[in-house]
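My current task is to audit a protein record that another person submitted. Please read both lines and tell me whether the tokens look consistent with the sequence. Do not assume that whoever made the record got everything right. I have pasted the whole thing underneath without changing anything:

===
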Amino acid sequence: MFDDSSVLKTEAGEATIEETAAPVPGAEGTPSLEEQLAAANARADENYGKFLLAVADFDNYRKRMQRDVDSMVSLRRRMLLERLLPVLDNLQRALGSNTEGGALRAGLEQTLRGFESVLAGEGVKAIEVRGEPFDPRTSEAVGTAPSDGIAEDTVVDVIEKGYKLGDELLRPAKVIVAKRLIE
């Protein structure tokens, strides 16, 4: 690539920088002072326009970089929270299987409450779907059950809780849905 210092490159395009030799006062064909002043003002106006373009380009670049950084941080945060959800599930399963009292259960309950409060502080909320009509936008049906006295397509059991991060789905709930038996 060539490097031409007389060309200013910006996102908006390229501008050529023209350099002219200063006129020698008193020489024949020398423009008058007013003409020289007008030419200098014209060059100054042109350079100021180029400066404003460069400032605008830099401002656009700064905004784009900030958006990219914010997007990357948000994505990495989401990925971390998705990786922590199975740990929360395991804590809940451990509490469900340990029905006896004792220090172990109390410790698990405290750990679970602490973990849930950290997730809540990050904006993670559990999705309550049990007893609600099945919604494929928030739930994933992993099985069906007979609909004894329950409206068809109603969530009857939650296998794995679903979570939202703000208004965005972090993980869909895995559910059992009521279906009418075909006889």
User: Anything to note?
Assistant: The chain has a mean pLDDT of 86.
